[in-house]
Amino acid sequence: MAHRLAFYDKEDRPWLGLRLTSAAIVGHTTETSARLWFRVHSPGFYCLLVTTVPIDVDRQPRLDEGTGLVCFKDSPHPWPVEGFVYAQKERFGFHSDCTRVFDVEGLSPGTRYHYALFALNQSRQEAWEVGRDEAHTFQTQDPDKDSWCFGFFSCHMPFKSDEVRNMHMWRHLGNVLDRTEAAFVIGGGDQVYSDGDSNVDIWRWLKKNKDEVWELLEESPKDCQEVMKSWYRDIYRGYWGYLSLRRVLRRHPTYMIWDDHEIMDGWGSYTRAELSDQLDSIWEWEDQHKNLTLADAMREAAITVYEEYQDSHNPPRAHKGWDYSWRWGSASFFAFDMRGDHDYERDEHRLLGLQQWERFQEWINEESTRPGSEILFVVSPVPVLHLSEFIANTLDLTLLGLADDLRDEWEHRTNQVERNELLSLVFDRAEQSGKRVVFLSGDVHVSAAFRLSRQGQRRAQVYQLTSSGITYCKSPGALLRLAVRNRGKLRLPEGQPRISFERLQEVFTDNNFATIHLERGEEGALRVAWDLYGDSGSPDRVQRLRRLWI
What we know:
By secondary structure, the protein is an alpha+beta fold. It contains 12 helices and 27 strands. The longest helix has 22 residues, at 288-309.
Protein backbone atom coordinates (compact mmCIF):
# COMPACT_ATOMS: atom_id res chain seq x y z
CA MET A 1 0.00 0.00 0.00
CA ALA A 2 1.72 3.16 -1.23
CA HIS A 3 -0.42 5.78 0.52
CA ARG A 4 1.42 8.12 2.88
CA LEU A 5 -0.71 7.05 5.84
CA ALA A 6 -0.13 3.31 5.37
CA PHE A 7 2.16 1.48 7.78
CA TYR A 8 3.58 -1.29 5.66
CA ASP A 9 7.29 -1.30 6.58
CA LYS A 10 6.96 2.33 7.59
CA GLU A 11 10.42 3.35 8.74
CA ASP A 12 9.30 5.78 11.41
CA ARG A 13 7.03 3.34 13.26
CA PRO A 14 8.80 3.19 16.63
CA TRP A 15 8.70 -0.56 17.36
CA LEU A 16 11.18 -1.60 20.04
CA GLY A 17 11.84 -5.00 18.48
CA LEU A 18 11.87 -6.71 15.11
CA ARG A 19 8.56 -6.91 13.28
CA LEU A 20 7.13 -10.30 12.46
CA THR A 21 8.22 -11.37 8.96
CA SER A 22 8.07 -15.14 8.42
CA ALA A 23 6.32 -17.22 11.07
CA ALA A 24 4.08 -20.22 11.76
CA ILE A 25 1.22 -20.99 14.12
CA VAL A 26 -0.16 -24.45 14.82
CA GLY A 27 -3.91 -24.06 15.01
CA HIS A 28 -6.90 -26.36 15.55
CA THR A 29 -5.73 -29.97 15.72
CA THR A 30 -7.73 -33.20 15.80
CA GLU A 31 -6.73 -36.87 15.82
CA THR A 32 -6.26 -36.82 12.03
CA SER A 33 -5.87 -33.18 10.98
CA ALA A 34 -4.17 -29.88 11.77
CA ARG A 35 -4.53 -26.27 10.65
CA LEU A 36 -1.15 -24.65 10.03
CA TRP A 37 -0.92 -20.86 9.64
CA PHE A 38 1.98 -19.11 7.98
CA ARG A 39 3.16 -15.63 7.21
CA VAL A 40 5.87 -15.13 4.60
CA HIS A 41 8.09 -12.18 3.83
CA SER A 42 7.26 -11.82 0.14
CA PRO A 43 4.33 -12.85 -2.07
CA GLY A 44 4.65 -15.89 -4.30
CA PHE A 45 4.14 -19.66 -4.39
CA TYR A 46 5.24 -21.69 -1.40
CA CYS A 47 5.03 -25.37 -0.49
CA LEU A 48 4.27 -26.89 2.91
CA LEU A 49 6.14 -30.07 3.80
CA VAL A 50 5.02 -32.38 6.64
CA THR A 51 7.06 -35.42 7.71
CA THR A 52 7.30 -37.92 10.55
CA VAL A 53 11.05 -37.32 11.04
CA PRO A 54 13.20 -34.18 11.42
CA ILE A 55 13.61 -32.34 8.12
CA ASP A 56 17.12 -31.93 6.74
CA VAL A 57 17.04 -28.18 6.20
CA ASP A 58 20.72 -28.11 5.25
CA ARG A 59 19.63 -29.43 1.84
CA GLN A 60 17.52 -27.45 -0.61
CA PRO A 61 14.01 -28.77 -1.36
CA ARG A 62 11.98 -28.87 -4.56
CA LEU A 63 8.44 -29.92 -5.40
CA ASP A 64 8.10 -32.60 -8.06
CA GLU A 65 5.04 -31.33 -9.92
CA GLY A 66 4.37 -34.69 -11.52
CA THR A 67 4.13 -36.74 -8.33
CA GLY A 68 3.36 -33.99 -5.78
CA LEU A 69 6.30 -35.22 -3.68
CA VAL A 70 8.98 -33.06 -2.09
CA CYS A 71 12.51 -34.05 -3.04
CA PHE A 72 15.95 -32.59 -2.47
CA LYS A 73 17.58 -30.76 -5.37
CA ASP A 74 20.89 -32.58 -4.91
CA SER A 75 19.31 -36.07 -5.15
CA PRO A 76 20.24 -37.97 -8.34
CA HIS A 77 16.74 -39.38 -8.46
CA PRO A 78 13.37 -37.78 -7.47
CA TRP A 79 13.12 -39.68 -4.23
CA PRO A 80 10.81 -38.12 -1.63
CA VAL A 81 12.33 -36.75 1.57
CA GLU A 82 12.49 -39.20 4.43
CA GLY A 83 9.23 -39.59 6.36
CA PHE A 84 7.22 -37.73 3.72
CA VAL A 85 3.55 -37.34 4.70
CA TYR A 86 2.09 -34.27 3.04
CA ALA A 87 2.91 -31.49 0.62
CA GLN A 88 0.74 -28.66 -0.67
CA LYS A 89 1.51 -25.69 -2.90
CA GLU A 90 -0.30 -22.37 -2.28
CA ARG A 91 0.10 -18.77 -3.32
CA PHE A 92 0.63 -16.04 -0.74
CA GLY A 93 -0.25 -12.45 -1.56
CA PHE A 94 -0.46 -8.95 -0.15
CA HIS A 95 -4.28 -9.19 -0.18
CA SER A 96 -4.02 -11.24 3.06
CA ASP A 97 -0.78 -9.66 4.30
CA CYS A 98 1.11 -12.71 3.00
CA THR A 99 -0.70 -15.04 5.42
CA ARG A 100 -2.35 -18.36 4.62
CA VAL A 101 -3.71 -21.46 6.35
CA PHE A 102 -3.13 -25.06 5.26
CA ASP A 103 -5.61 -27.75 6.33
CA VAL A 104 -3.54 -30.90 6.65
CA GLU A 105 -5.63 -34.08 6.54
CA GLY A 106 -4.98 -37.81 6.78
CA LEU A 107 -2.74 -37.74 9.84
CA SER A 108 -2.40 -40.44 12.50
CA PRO A 109 -3.66 -39.98 16.10
CA GLY A 110 -1.17 -39.24 18.84
CA THR A 111 1.70 -38.68 16.41
CA ARG A 112 4.33 -35.95 16.36
CA TYR A 113 4.98 -34.38 12.98
CA HIS A 114 7.65 -32.05 11.63
CA TYR A 115 6.84 -29.28 9.19
CA ALA A 116 8.51 -26.56 7.15
CA LEU A 117 7.57 -24.12 4.39
CA PHE A 118 9.74 -23.40 1.34
CA ALA A 119 9.54 -21.03 -1.60
CA LEU A 120 9.08 -22.29 -5.15
CA ASN A 121 10.85 -19.27 -6.59
CA GLN A 122 13.81 -20.81 -8.44
CA SER A 123 15.84 -17.60 -8.21
CA ARG A 124 16.06 -17.84 -4.43
CA GLN A 125 19.36 -19.21 -3.18
CA GLU A 126 17.77 -20.25 0.13
CA ALA A 127 14.42 -21.96 -0.44
CA TRP A 128 13.40 -22.56 3.19
CA GLU A 129 11.09 -19.80 4.45
CA VAL A 130 9.85 -21.27 7.77
CA GLY A 131 11.44 -24.09 9.73
CA ARG A 132 15.13 -23.58 9.00
CA ASP A 133 16.11 -21.84 12.24
CA GLU A 134 14.92 -24.71 14.45
CA ALA A 135 12.63 -27.73 14.18
CA HIS A 136 8.91 -26.92 13.87
CA THR A 137 6.66 -29.69 15.18
CA PHE A 138 3.11 -30.44 16.29
CA GLN A 139 1.29 -33.45 17.71
CA THR A 140 -2.19 -34.71 16.87
CA GLN A 141 -4.73 -35.59 19.52
CA ASP A 142 -4.11 -38.89 21.28
CA PRO A 143 -7.42 -40.67 22.06
CA ASP A 144 -5.66 -43.16 24.34
CA LYS A 145 -4.16 -40.52 26.63
CA ASP A 146 -6.20 -40.35 29.85
CA SER A 147 -4.13 -37.63 31.55
CA TRP A 148 -3.16 -34.42 29.76
CA CYS A 149 -3.03 -30.68 30.20
CA PHE A 150 -3.39 -27.41 28.31
CA GLY A 151 -2.18 -23.84 28.81
CA PHE A 152 -4.00 -20.52 29.10
CA PHE A 153 -2.82 -16.92 28.73
CA SER A 154 -4.24 -13.48 27.97
CA CYS A 155 -3.31 -9.80 27.69
CA HIS A 156 -0.06 -9.50 25.77
CA MET A 157 1.07 -5.87 26.08
CA PRO A 158 4.80 -5.68 26.89
CA PHE A 159 5.47 -2.01 26.11
CA LYS A 160 5.89 0.69 28.72
CA SER A 161 7.93 3.89 28.82
CA ASP A 162 9.91 3.09 25.67
CA GLU A 163 10.86 -0.32 27.03
CA VAL A 164 9.91 -3.93 26.34
CA ARG A 165 9.06 -5.69 29.58
CA ASN A 166 8.02 -9.14 30.77
CA MET A 167 8.79 -11.05 27.57
CA HIS A 168 10.57 -13.62 29.74
CA MET A 169 7.07 -14.83 30.66
CA TRP A 170 6.70 -16.20 27.12
CA ARG A 171 9.93 -18.14 27.50
CA HIS A 172 8.67 -19.61 30.77
CA LEU A 173 5.29 -20.44 29.23
CA GLY A 174 7.03 -22.33 26.43
CA ASN A 175 9.20 -24.22 28.92
CA VAL A 176 6.19 -25.18 31.06
CA LEU A 177 4.19 -26.32 28.03
CA ASP A 178 7.14 -28.42 26.88
CA ARG A 179 7.80 -29.88 30.32
CA THR A 180 4.17 -30.83 30.92
CA GLU A 181 3.73 -32.03 27.32
CA ALA A 182 0.73 -29.75 27.03
CA ALA A 183 -1.77 -30.69 24.35
CA PHE A 184 -2.53 -27.10 23.33
CA VAL A 185 -2.78 -23.52 24.62
CA ILE A 186 -5.63 -20.98 24.65
CA GLY A 187 -5.16 -17.25 24.05
CA GLY A 188 -8.05 -15.80 26.04
CA GLY A 189 -8.17 -12.29 24.57
CA ASP A 190 -6.11 -9.15 23.97
CA GLN A 191 -3.37 -11.01 22.10
CA VAL A 192 -2.46 -7.54 20.76
CA TYR A 193 -3.31 -3.98 21.81
CA SER A 194 -4.21 -1.61 19.01
CA ASP A 195 -4.20 1.22 21.57
CA GLY A 196 -2.07 -0.08 24.41
CA ASP A 197 1.04 2.06 24.13
CA SER A 198 0.90 5.70 23.07
CA ASN A 199 3.92 5.32 20.77
CA VAL A 200 2.18 2.71 18.59
CA ASP A 201 -1.49 3.50 19.30
CA ILE A 202 -3.22 3.40 15.90
CA TRP A 203 -6.33 5.22 17.23
CA ARG A 204 -4.06 8.04 18.28
CA TRP A 205 -2.61 8.02 14.76
CA LEU A 206 -6.15 8.18 13.34
CA LYS A 207 -7.01 11.21 15.48
CA LYS A 208 -3.76 12.92 14.47
CA ASN A 209 -4.53 12.45 10.77
CA LYS A 210 -8.31 12.43 10.92
CA ASP A 211 -9.00 15.04 8.28
CA GLU A 212 -6.77 13.36 5.73
CA VAL A 213 -8.20 9.93 6.52
CA TRP A 214 -11.73 11.28 6.20
CA GLU A 215 -10.91 12.81 2.85
CA LEU A 216 -9.52 9.45 1.68
CA LEU A 217 -12.61 7.62 2.99
CA GLU A 218 -14.89 9.93 1.02
CA GLU A 219 -12.83 9.63 -2.16
CA SER A 220 -12.15 5.88 -2.04
CA PRO A 221 -13.56 3.70 0.78
CA LYS A 222 -11.58 0.73 -0.58
CA ASP A 223 -8.26 2.56 -0.38
CA CYS A 224 -9.12 3.81 3.10
CA GLN A 225 -9.80 0.24 4.21
CA GLU A 226 -6.41 -0.81 2.88
CA VAL A 227 -4.74 1.97 4.87
CA MET A 228 -6.57 1.01 8.06
CA LYS A 229 -5.80 -2.68 7.57
CA SER A 230 -2.12 -1.76 7.25
CA TRP A 231 -2.34 -0.18 10.70
CA TYR A 232 -3.81 -3.29 12.33
CA ARG A 233 -1.41 -5.56 10.47
CA ASP A 234 1.49 -3.49 11.76
CA ILE A 235 0.14 -3.94 15.29
CA TYR A 236 0.21 -7.74 14.93
CA ARG A 237 3.62 -7.72 13.33
CA GLY A 238 5.00 -5.49 16.09
CA TYR A 239 3.47 -7.43 18.98
CA TRP A 240 4.22 -10.89 17.60
CA GLY A 241 7.76 -10.36 16.37
CA TYR A 242 9.49 -11.74 19.48
CA LEU A 243 11.12 -15.17 19.28
CA SER A 244 9.91 -16.40 22.68
CA LEU A 245 6.29 -15.77 21.62
CA ARG A 246 6.75 -17.30 18.17
CA ARG A 247 8.28 -20.42 19.67
CA VAL A 248 5.14 -21.05 21.72
CA LEU A 249 2.76 -20.53 18.81
CA ARG A 250 4.69 -22.68 16.34
CA ARG A 251 5.08 -25.69 18.65
CA HIS A 252 1.69 -25.96 20.34
CA PRO A 253 -1.83 -25.97 18.87
CA THR A 254 -3.16 -22.54 19.78
CA TYR A 255 -6.79 -21.46 20.06
CA MET A 256 -7.43 -17.71 20.11
CA ILE A 257 -10.38 -15.43 20.75
CA TRP A 258 -10.30 -11.66 20.64
CA ASP A 259 -11.29 -9.09 23.23
CA ASP A 260 -11.64 -5.32 23.02
CA HIS A 261 -8.05 -4.28 22.35
CA GLU A 262 -7.93 -6.14 19.05
CA ILE A 263 -10.39 -3.42 17.97
CA MET A 264 -10.11 -0.63 20.56
CA ASP A 265 -10.33 -0.32 24.33
CA GLY A 266 -13.92 -0.88 25.47
CA TRP A 267 -15.34 -1.65 22.04
CA GLY A 268 -19.06 -2.33 22.39
CA SER A 269 -19.33 -0.78 25.85
CA TYR A 270 -19.83 2.81 24.68
CA THR A 271 -22.96 4.55 23.52
CA ARG A 272 -22.62 5.82 19.97
CA ALA A 273 -22.21 9.34 21.33
CA GLU A 274 -19.46 8.19 23.70
CA LEU A 275 -17.74 6.30 20.88
CA SER A 276 -17.72 9.49 18.84
CA ASP A 277 -16.17 11.30 21.80
CA GLN A 278 -13.18 8.92 21.66
CA LEU A 279 -12.21 10.51 18.35
CA ASP A 280 -12.69 14.11 19.42
CA SER A 281 -9.68 16.36 19.77
CA ILE A 282 -8.95 17.61 23.24
CA TRP A 283 -9.76 21.19 22.35
CA GLU A 284 -13.01 20.74 20.40
CA TRP A 285 -16.15 18.69 19.88
CA GLU A 286 -16.24 17.40 16.34
CA ASP A 287 -18.73 16.04 13.82
CA GLN A 288 -20.36 12.90 15.24
CA HIS A 289 -21.26 11.41 11.86
CA LYS A 290 -17.66 11.78 10.73
CA ASN A 291 -16.27 10.21 13.91
CA LEU A 292 -18.67 7.26 13.89
CA THR A 293 -18.11 6.56 10.20
CA LEU A 294 -14.36 6.43 10.81
CA ALA A 295 -14.81 4.22 13.90
CA ASP A 296 -17.00 1.78 11.99
CA ALA A 297 -14.43 1.64 9.20
CA MET A 298 -11.74 0.85 11.78
CA ARG A 299 -13.90 -1.99 13.12
CA GLU A 300 -14.17 -3.50 9.64
CA ALA A 301 -10.40 -3.32 9.22
CA ALA A 302 -9.89 -4.87 12.66
CA ILE A 303 -12.21 -7.76 11.75
CA THR A 304 -10.33 -8.50 8.52
CA VAL A 305 -6.95 -8.54 10.23
CA TYR A 306 -8.24 -10.53 13.22
CA GLU A 307 -9.46 -13.15 10.78
CA GLU A 308 -6.09 -13.15 9.00
CA TYR A 309 -3.92 -13.48 12.11
CA GLN A 310 -6.08 -15.24 14.73
CA ASP A 311 -9.42 -16.60 13.66
CA SER A 312 -8.20 -18.31 10.47
CA HIS A 313 -6.45 -21.08 12.42
CA ASN A 314 -9.34 -21.67 14.84
CA PRO A 315 -11.80 -24.54 14.23
CA PRO A 316 -13.83 -24.12 11.02
CA ARG A 317 -17.56 -23.45 11.40
CA ALA A 318 -20.61 -22.87 9.27
CA HIS A 319 -22.17 -19.91 11.10
CA LYS A 320 -21.37 -16.22 10.87
CA GLY A 321 -19.72 -14.85 13.97
CA TRP A 322 -16.47 -15.60 15.75
CA ASP A 323 -17.56 -17.91 18.58
CA TYR A 324 -16.54 -21.54 18.11
CA SER A 325 -16.32 -24.89 19.88
CA TRP A 326 -14.04 -27.91 19.81
CA ARG A 327 -13.37 -31.16 21.64
CA TRP A 328 -10.19 -32.61 23.04
CA GLY A 329 -10.32 -36.00 24.67
CA SER A 330 -12.86 -36.02 27.47
CA ALA A 331 -13.22 -32.21 27.49
CA SER A 332 -15.50 -29.94 25.47
CA PHE A 333 -14.80 -26.25 24.83
CA PHE A 334 -16.85 -23.23 23.77
CA ALA A 335 -15.18 -19.86 23.12
CA PHE A 336 -17.43 -16.82 23.56
CA ASP A 337 -17.00 -13.92 21.16
CA MET A 338 -17.69 -10.94 23.42
CA ARG A 339 -16.77 -8.21 20.90
CA GLY A 340 -18.12 -9.03 17.45
CA ASP A 341 -21.75 -8.40 18.41
CA HIS A 342 -21.28 -6.50 21.69
CA ASP A 343 -23.67 -3.54 21.81
CA TYR A 344 -24.18 -1.56 25.02
CA GLU A 345 -27.27 0.16 23.61
CA ARG A 346 -29.11 -3.02 22.61
CA ASP A 347 -32.12 -3.90 24.77
CA GLU A 348 -31.00 -7.47 25.53
CA HIS A 349 -28.15 -9.92 24.98
CA ARG A 350 -25.76 -6.98 24.84
CA LEU A 351 -22.60 -9.04 25.29
CA LEU A 352 -23.16 -12.12 23.13
CA GLY A 353 -26.06 -11.30 20.84
CA LEU A 354 -29.08 -13.55 20.42
CA GLN A 355 -27.67 -15.86 17.74
CA GLN A 356 -24.52 -16.66 19.70
CA TRP A 357 -26.63 -17.26 22.80
CA GLU A 358 -28.73 -19.77 20.86
CA ARG A 359 -25.58 -21.53 19.61
CA PHE A 360 -24.27 -21.76 23.17
CA GLN A 361 -27.57 -23.22 24.37
CA GLU A 362 -27.40 -25.86 21.65
CA TRP A 363 -23.77 -26.65 22.52
CA ILE A 364 -24.21 -27.04 26.28
CA ASN A 365 -27.40 -29.06 25.85
CA GLU A 366 -25.54 -31.46 23.56
CA GLU A 367 -22.23 -31.66 25.42
CA SER A 368 -23.79 -32.03 28.87
CA THR A 369 -25.53 -35.22 27.69
CA ARG A 370 -22.89 -36.61 25.30
CA PRO A 371 -21.29 -39.74 26.83
CA GLY A 372 -17.73 -38.91 25.73
CA SER A 373 -17.72 -35.47 27.35
CA GLU A 374 -16.81 -35.31 31.07
CA ILE A 375 -16.01 -31.64 31.67
CA LEU A 376 -17.11 -28.44 29.93
CA PHE A 377 -14.85 -25.39 29.55
CA VAL A 378 -16.29 -22.03 28.52
CA VAL A 379 -13.77 -19.40 27.39
CA SER A 380 -15.26 -16.05 28.42
CA PRO A 381 -12.69 -13.31 27.65
CA VAL A 382 -14.26 -11.15 30.39
CA PRO A 383 -14.82 -13.05 33.67
CA VAL A 384 -18.38 -13.98 34.53
CA LEU A 385 -17.50 -13.32 38.17
CA HIS A 386 -14.81 -10.89 39.24
CA LEU A 387 -15.79 -7.48 40.62
CA SER A 388 -17.98 -6.57 43.51
CA GLU A 389 -21.37 -5.68 42.03
CA PHE A 390 -21.24 -2.45 44.04
CA ILE A 391 -18.03 -1.46 42.26
CA ALA A 392 -19.31 -2.54 38.84
CA ASN A 393 -22.51 -0.56 39.14
CA THR A 394 -21.58 2.45 41.29
CA LEU A 395 -18.45 3.62 39.50
CA ASP A 396 -19.94 3.77 36.00
CA LEU A 397 -18.42 7.20 35.59
CA THR A 398 -17.10 8.27 32.22
CA LEU A 399 -15.03 11.06 33.78
CA LEU A 400 -13.01 8.45 35.71
CA GLY A 401 -12.26 6.55 32.50
CA LEU A 402 -13.91 3.44 33.94
CA ALA A 403 -17.24 3.38 32.15
CA ASP A 404 -16.22 1.04 29.32
CA ASP A 405 -14.28 -1.35 31.60
CA LEU A 406 -17.18 -1.68 34.02
CA ARG A 407 -19.78 -2.06 31.29
CA ASP A 408 -17.68 -4.92 29.89
CA GLU A 409 -18.36 -6.83 33.10
CA TRP A 410 -21.06 -9.48 33.36
CA GLU A 411 -21.84 -7.98 36.79
CA HIS A 412 -22.76 -4.59 35.36
CA ARG A 413 -26.47 -3.84 35.76
CA THR A 414 -26.97 -3.66 31.98
CA ASN A 415 -25.64 -7.22 31.63
CA GLN A 416 -27.14 -8.87 34.69
CA VAL A 417 -30.20 -10.32 32.93
CA GLU A 418 -27.89 -11.93 30.38
CA ARG A 419 -25.54 -13.16 33.10
CA ASN A 420 -28.40 -14.61 35.14
CA GLU A 421 -29.75 -16.40 32.09
CA LEU A 422 -26.29 -17.82 31.39
CA LEU A 423 -25.68 -19.02 34.93
CA SER A 424 -29.17 -20.48 35.23
CA LEU A 425 -28.58 -22.58 32.13
CA VAL A 426 -25.09 -23.61 33.24
CA PHE A 427 -26.22 -24.64 36.72
CA ASP A 428 -29.18 -26.57 35.37
CA ARG A 429 -27.01 -28.56 32.97
CA ALA A 430 -24.29 -29.09 35.56
CA GLU A 431 -26.89 -30.36 38.06
CA GLN A 432 -28.56 -32.67 35.58
CA SER A 433 -25.35 -34.14 34.16
CA GLY A 434 -23.02 -34.04 37.15
CA LYS A 435 -20.34 -32.60 34.85
CA ARG A 436 -18.14 -29.71 35.92
CA VAL A 437 -18.43 -26.43 34.05
CA VAL A 438 -15.35 -24.21 34.17
CA PHE A 439 -15.20 -20.61 32.91
CA LEU A 440 -11.74 -19.53 31.70
CA SER A 441 -11.12 -15.79 31.46
CA GLY A 442 -8.57 -13.01 31.03
CA ASP A 443 -8.97 -9.22 30.62
CA VAL A 444 -8.70 -7.99 34.22
CA HIS A 445 -4.86 -8.04 34.66
CA VAL A 446 -5.00 -10.13 37.83
CA SER A 447 -5.52 -13.83 38.48
CA ALA A 448 -8.28 -15.23 40.67
CA ALA A 449 -10.23 -18.47 41.12
CA PHE A 450 -13.82 -18.92 42.34
CA ARG A 451 -16.27 -21.69 43.05
CA LEU A 452 -19.94 -20.89 42.45
CA SER A 453 -22.89 -22.67 44.01
CA ARG A 454 -26.65 -22.39 43.55
CA GLN A 455 -29.30 -23.00 46.15
CA GLY A 456 -30.93 -26.41 45.75
CA GLN A 457 -28.38 -27.71 43.23
CA ARG A 458 -25.68 -29.40 45.28
CA ARG A 459 -24.60 -31.65 42.45
CA ALA A 460 -23.65 -28.73 40.22
CA GLN A 461 -19.92 -27.90 40.13
CA VAL A 462 -19.22 -24.53 38.52
CA TYR A 463 -15.88 -22.66 38.62
CA GLN A 464 -14.38 -19.42 37.33
CA LEU A 465 -10.61 -19.35 36.66
CA THR A 466 -8.87 -16.18 35.48
CA SER A 467 -5.29 -15.70 34.26
CA SER A 468 -4.28 -12.18 33.15
CA GLY A 469 -1.98 -10.93 31.86
CA ILE A 470 1.09 -12.63 30.52
CA THR A 471 3.03 -9.44 29.74
CA TYR A 472 0.65 -6.58 30.56
CA CYS A 473 2.84 -3.83 31.97
CA LYS A 474 0.58 -1.38 33.71
CA SER A 475 0.21 -2.09 37.41
CA PRO A 476 -3.38 -2.98 38.33
CA GLY A 477 -5.12 -0.21 40.21
CA ALA A 478 -5.58 -0.72 43.93
CA LEU A 479 -9.30 -0.20 43.43
CA LEU A 480 -9.64 -3.17 41.10
CA ARG A 481 -7.48 -5.39 43.30
CA LEU A 482 -9.57 -4.63 46.37
CA ALA A 483 -12.76 -5.07 44.37
CA VAL A 484 -12.20 -8.82 44.00
CA ARG A 485 -14.30 -10.15 46.86
CA ASN A 486 -13.60 -13.28 48.92
CA ARG A 487 -17.17 -14.54 49.02
CA GLY A 488 -20.70 -13.36 48.67
CA LYS A 489 -23.98 -13.69 46.81
CA LEU A 490 -24.96 -12.43 43.37
CA ARG A 491 -27.75 -9.90 43.14
CA LEU A 492 -30.67 -11.78 41.57
CA PRO A 493 -34.35 -11.00 41.03
CA GLU A 494 -36.62 -11.98 43.88
CA GLY A 495 -37.72 -15.58 43.66
CA GLN A 496 -34.64 -16.90 41.82
CA PRO A 497 -32.46 -19.50 43.61
CA ARG A 498 -29.53 -17.87 45.42
CA ILE A 499 -26.10 -18.06 43.73
CA SER A 500 -23.11 -17.80 46.06
CA PHE A 501 -19.41 -17.59 45.30
CA GLU A 502 -16.19 -18.26 47.19
CA ARG A 503 -12.69 -17.25 46.17
CA LEU A 504 -10.33 -20.25 46.24
CA GLN A 505 -6.92 -18.56 45.86
CA GLU A 506 -5.22 -15.32 46.70
CA VAL A 507 -5.59 -12.68 44.01
CA PHE A 508 -2.28 -12.60 42.12
CA THR A 509 -1.46 -9.17 40.70
CA ASP A 510 1.78 -9.77 38.77
CA ASN A 511 2.21 -11.23 35.30
CA ASN A 512 0.95 -14.78 35.03
CA PHE A 513 -0.20 -17.70 32.89
CA ALA A 514 -1.79 -21.03 33.77
CA THR A 515 -2.00 -24.70 32.95
CA ILE A 516 -5.05 -26.90 33.51
CA HIS A 517 -4.41 -30.60 34.15
CA LEU A 518 -6.90 -33.42 33.60
CA GLU A 519 -5.80 -36.60 35.36
CA ARG A 520 -7.50 -39.98 35.45
CA GLY A 521 -7.54 -41.49 38.93
CA GLU A 522 -7.16 -45.15 39.77
CA GLU A 523 -10.93 -45.63 39.94
CA GLY A 524 -11.49 -43.86 36.64
CA ALA A 525 -12.63 -40.52 38.08
CA LEU A 526 -11.40 -37.38 36.32
CA ARG A 527 -9.40 -35.02 38.53
CA VAL A 528 -8.79 -31.43 37.42
CA ALA A 529 -6.00 -29.15 38.68
CA TRP A 530 -5.28 -25.47 38.05
CA ASP A 531 -1.64 -24.40 38.19
CA LEU A 532 -0.95 -20.68 38.12
CA TYR A 533 2.56 -19.52 37.21
CA GLY A 534 3.47 -16.01 38.30
CA ASP A 535 6.35 -13.64 37.78
CA SER A 536 8.91 -14.11 40.55
CA GLY A 537 10.59 -10.73 40.11
CA SER A 538 13.54 -12.36 38.33
CA PRO A 539 13.56 -13.00 34.57
CA ASP A 540 15.35 -16.30 35.19
CA ARG A 541 12.61 -17.88 37.28
CA VAL A 542 8.84 -18.24 37.37
CA GLN A 543 6.98 -19.29 40.50
CA ARG A 544 4.25 -21.89 40.52
CA LEU A 545 1.62 -20.99 43.06
CA ARG A 546 -0.33 -23.49 45.13
CA ARG A 547 -2.02 -26.12 42.95
CA LEU A 548 -5.79 -25.84 43.06
CA TRP A 549 -7.91 -28.96 42.59
CA ILE A 550 -11.43 -28.38 41.32
